From TrEMBL:
It comes from the Bacteria. CDD domains: AHBA_syn. Belongs to the DegT/DnrJ/EryC1 family. InterPro entries: DegT/StrS_aminotransferase (IPR000653), PyrdxlP-dep_Trfase (IPR015424), PyrdxlP-dep_Trfase_major (IPR015421). This is DegT/DnrJ/EryC1/StrS family aminotransferase. Keywords: Aminotransferase, Pyridoxal phosphate, Transferase. Gene3D superfamilies: Type I PLP-dependent aspartate aminotransferase-like (Major domain). GO terms for molecular function: transaminase activity.
């Protein structure tokens, strides 16, 4: 079976060696030495000054919204994983969708200003598939209208934009370390900010608000990750360069084998050092997509419709029409993409796709 992704695992002995440190210390959570070491090593690898590792990639969105959105209107993208929208609704803020750019697939910054009202407090945009939003334009709009900017960077591990980690943009940026993502701790995630004041708030918010054992800085929840999960992250670190290189190899082979006259692939924003996190293709129509998907499934190949449906169509949201996002969502398919994917399998996949677009 070939899935859209296959979790990269380090050799078991290597995981066990790290894991044993937590075991021997009898310290398996509450920011033990493995979490601290992982944070420090990831900071150097990613090129960020501050980060907090969390239990997943959704909690940091919820924490950032709670601190910054004030239960107002949050301008957001309809083309993302459901967590982006559900975090807003969960916080009892109001999602206000702005359609996406048809080539970059990120929020269309030229349509943001017209969506701003006196209730707008924040923008929550996704660097979808690790492709940066127009961060400069969004920053200008946010400053002019006194809005906070949160980036859902779940797909952005290792992405650089104009020489800096993509996580350095926005007031707060998040990442997911879920097993399906490029770098993972099974379940896990992170939040980033350049501001010391905001870092302090994010930090205590993910730890019940604690200020020592008996005092509290403020409201908090439990967003901590365990040592058992951090051990996975540490055991994966030596393989990061290899993971990235293999992904590029898979990507290049798809580009060579696919008939790209009738298939649109994603346009990465200029100035980006990308991470090859996904291989999305836009089929000519939903019908061709469904037909190709059926044939691939018969061969036990399971691409995924990332992201479908367009989030404005989710029943508990039921937002206004977003023509570009709905059109893209109906035609986009993410092909299997992981380091161990073999060339002959990629060629089978491309054969089926190519056959279905002519
Ligand atoms: C995976 C993902 C999340 C959620 O991350 P978890 O670690 O699964 O909680 C949020 N946003 C986007 C865009 C994602 O792809």
């Amino acid at each position: 079976m070939i899935n859209v992704t296959q979790t990269f695992l380090p050799p078991l002995e290597e995981y066990m060696t790290v894991f044993k440190r937590a075991y021997d210390a009898r310290w398996i959570t509450n920011r033990g030495s493995l979490v601290l070491e992982l944070e420090s090593k990831l900071q150097s690898f990613l090129g960020v000054n501050q980060m907090i590792i969390t239990n997943n990639g959704t909690t940091p969105l919820q924490i950032a919204l709670r601190l910054l959105a004030n239960q107002g209107e949050v301008i957001t993208t309809p083309f993302s994983y459901v967590a982006t929208s559900s975090a807003i609704v969960w916080d009892r803020s109001t999602p206000v969708f702005v359609d996406i750019d048809p080539e970059y697939l990120t929020i269309d910054e030229t349509k943001i200003v017209e969506a701003i009202t006196e209730r707008t407090t924040a923008i929550l945009a996704t660097h979808v598939f690790g492709n940066p939003c127009n961060v400069e334009a969004i920053d200008r709009i946010a400053k002019r209208h006194n809005l906070k900017v949160i980036y859902d960077g779940a797909h952005c591990f290792g992405v650089k934009y104009k020489g800096s980690s993509l996580f350095n943009y926005g007031d707060v940026s998040t990442c997911s370390f879920h097993a399906t993502k490029l770098f993972h701790t099974g379940e896990g995630g992170a939040m980033f900010t350049e501001s010391h004041e905001l870092f302090h708030k994010l930090y205590y918010s993910h730890n019940f608000g604690h200020d020592g054992p008996e005092n509290f800085h403020g409201l908090g929840i439990n967003g901590k990750i365990s040592e058992l999960q951090a051990a996975m992250g540490l055991a994966l670190l030596p393989y990061l360069e290899q993971i990235m290189a293999e992904r590029k190899r898979v990507y290049d082979h798809y580009e060579a084998e696919l008939d790209l006259r009738d298939i649109q692939s994603i346009k990465i924003r200029e100035g980006t050092l990308w991470n090859y996190s996904y291989f999305p293709i836009l089929m000519p129509s939903e019908n061709t997509l469904l037909k190709a998907q059926r044939e691939l499934n018969q061969e036990r190949i399971f691409p995924r419709r990332y992201f479908y449906p367009s989030l404005n169509k989710i029943p508990y949201i039921n937002g206004p029409d977003m023509p570009v996002s709905e059109n893209i969502a109906s035609r986009i398919l993410c092909l299997p993409m992981y380091p161990e994917l073999q060339k002959p399998d990629q060629e089978r996949i491309c054969g089926i796709i190519n056959k279905n677009i002519c």
